[in-house]
Amino acid sequence: xxxxAEDLEDLTRTxxxxxxxxxxxxxxxxxxxxxxxxxxxxxxxxxxxTKRNAFTELMAPKPRAPISQAPQSLASxxxxxxxxxxxxxxxxxxxxxERFPNQVLRVTAHxxxxxxxxxxxxxxxxxxxxxxxxxxLHPHTAFADASFLTTIRAEAAEAARxxxxxxxxxxxxxxxxxxxxxxxVGRGVPPDRLPPGRDxxxxxxxxxxxxxxxxxxxxxxxxxxMRSERVxxxxxxxxxxxxxxxxxxxxxxxxxxxxxxxxxQNANLRRELVCWRCGRTFGNRFAELKRHLEEEFVEWRAE
Amino acid sequence: xxxxAEDLEDLTRTxxxxxxxxxxxxxxxxxxxxxxxxxxxxxxxxxxxTKRNAFTELMAPKPRAPISQAPQSLASxxxxxxxxxxxxxxxxxxxxxERFPNQVLRVTAHxxxxxxxxxxxxxxxxxxxxxxxxxxLHPHTAFADASFLTTIRAEAAEAARxxxxxxxxxxxxxxxxxxxxxxxVGRGVPPDRLPPGRDxxxxxxxxxxxxxxxxxxxxxxxxxxMRSERVxxxxxxxxxxxxxxxxxxxxxxxxxxxxxxxxxQNANLRRELVCWRCGRTFGNRFAELKRHLEEEFVEWRAE
DNA sequence: TATTCCGATAGTGAC
DNA sequence: GTCACTATCGGAATGAG
Lengths: 303, 303
Description:
The structure is a homodimer of 303-residue chains.
Chain A: H1 2-14, H2 28-32, H3 36-39, H4 54-59, H5 74-82, H6 91-95, E1 104-107, E2 111-115, E3 124-129, H7 139-142, H8 146-171, H9 179-186, E4 204-209, E5 219-223, H10 234-241, E6 245-247, H11 262-270, E7 273-274, E8 281-283, H12 286-302
Antiparallel strand pairs in A: 1-2, 2-3, 3-5, 4-5, 4-6, 7-8
Chain A binds a DNA duplex (15 and 17 nucleotides) through α4, α10, α11 and α12.
């Protein structure tokens, strides 16, 4: 899977959507921050050699919350509850996207787009709304707000285009239906005169999980394949391949939509495994599904 | 555990109970027997470098039983059913003890005494009755025969003495109550004038399993400790440390003895784990019990 | 429905 | 209640000095 990891690295460099990050990976200030008194609330990674992400960032040593504090709003208290536990890890990307130049792909007024730290497909991005009024809401609640939904949908569409372009870059050379375009690129044909290639946008899905584990609102932008060594158990797979995955297009959900029901969604996660591509069933035999997905991947990318 | 393995090797050499084995480990005939036509019913190990035991012996490739055979007695048919499957592996020790000089400790008119191939304690022997009229019976049935029981008991007692002597040899130097004897041995005191040491016979248990998996009647002669890397799961442990283990002294069982009941014995195998020495309970936490048994072993051998 | 580690549980096949 | 192998399932901790 090293190939995949390297290719995802490339994704940060291929597009014109430069992140707003402007701080270099390492600065003298970080070394100064090693003294406990200098750390205070702005946490820094204690081991510079550790690859930085929101998890290491969030879990970095910090003093216990002081007994005497300035009065807080209810909103910031809620945020405080989340901070410092894994459920709240995404807040770091939202509040400090510039700290993660390797993960953050795009920052707009409304969202931060990052690479999922544990991608479940060849391409797996997360779109994180920045609005504090929304970002701790359950997706079903947040996307009941029509205006907010419209905003996020537009950003998600842009993210999906980016994901499709990266998928084309990574897999285009394996694709039969993309061959003419691929060869034209090889001949130096300018972009505006290239023949249409495979429609990779069709292979990108956009949606939420019915029961997110990470507290902050996030929309998955994920390629169809489910080929990743990070897919390690049934729930990983079923969370993207049953109605537990709620397409962003389906929002707002009707009040009586069955997908709101906890029991129904828990059952979805425990369903028998079914190949997303050929429909073959695998019961509980996850390892067998994994081997099968490898074969399907080869055929899928060759379409 | 290499120490244990080596010490068990020693057991074949320490006592005067020479096995009846007289054939060397390897003969030219075995190589001749490699051709399929020469194998017939007397199976040979196909890979000479593999350490030989009844399992490799029994499982070695052999031709299917020929369609046309001489008429057989019912007894030999029963034996035929067992032959060639794991449940019948012990027959090789019974019929061909001379093939296993490293496993067989003693052969008498009535029994073969072997080292268990997967010992569940520091000392773990199996006493195999040679009587074809008994050796495929369930232990509860076989030991309802008073005369047979008397014979096997006498042999088992001898086997237990052998086991105790080997335990003393392996562990005597760690034992407080054995120190005087140990030091006397060191000073060259003749055996008949040695002070009494620790009573290792008390640490040897003799009995059967209520539901044996190996088809041929076998009596376990096992040291008390249960310290062995071959103890790998709960059933291994509980089969020796619940009423699933039936002391030979308890035979014949009464008709209404609860230990005859299948449901009761299956429950015994699934019981929560309890340390045989201190009575501490471990629920289902087998790994924790294993670590605890290591500590108990050190204290037990120091008694 | 975060991951990771450890370990308990279950099914299979065995020349 | 044979073993050995593979895998599934289940709980607990989760950073760092």
